[in-house]
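# step 3/5: fold
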Amino acid sequence: MKKYLAEMFGTLVLVLMGCGVAVSLNCTSNCADVANAGTVIGTALAFGLSVVAMAYTIGGISGCHINPAITLGVFLSGRMSGKDAGMYILFQFIGAVLGSAILWLLTTNAGLTGTGANNPQEGVSVVGALIAEIVFTTVFVLVVLGATAKTNGATNNFAGLAIGLALVLVHLACIRYTGTSVNPARSFGPALFEGGAALNNLWIFIVGPFVGGALAAGVWRFIEPTENK
């Protein structure tokens, strides 16, 4: 049970800190504007640093997935049981909802709007947003699978840092298209409290990351070192 609670807490922190910075910097509405590069960089760093912090906090307990797409990739790679995968995903969604509830409470009382929910950015079609989420989730989950592989002794001790930096990179590249999710739970919680278009578009940020996670597992199984199989 401790590892499930760790996943819940880790996802709560990711959503509260990452989406909280996005709201504070007004990246939720202005991230498509290249003139606001500072908001993009700040938001990207917030998500990446949240992952690094949680990796070295709960990594030894649960492995610090805090992302259903990662859990799916790990499961399809044969590294965890179906029961654990299902429970991880459930508690990740619970954590995201709790983190979003706290953020909503804070922003409402501070006169701010939004909860950092994802939407296709200006000029980006639904198909374009879906493709972006699939592609960038595939890249991100593949980094996770590689950085945490038993045969990758060179980077294992720094896996948390590598994964956090990879998430920063993914945000820098993807924010212009979708605000960057690559994490179904991260999108689910904020959409519940923001409603409207975020709730209508939520399926993009559920389907895209899950497909990306599955693709990453397939790619990893193909390129995985023989001694790790």
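# step 4/5: annotate
The chain has a mean pLDDT of 91.
# step 5/5: archive (pending)
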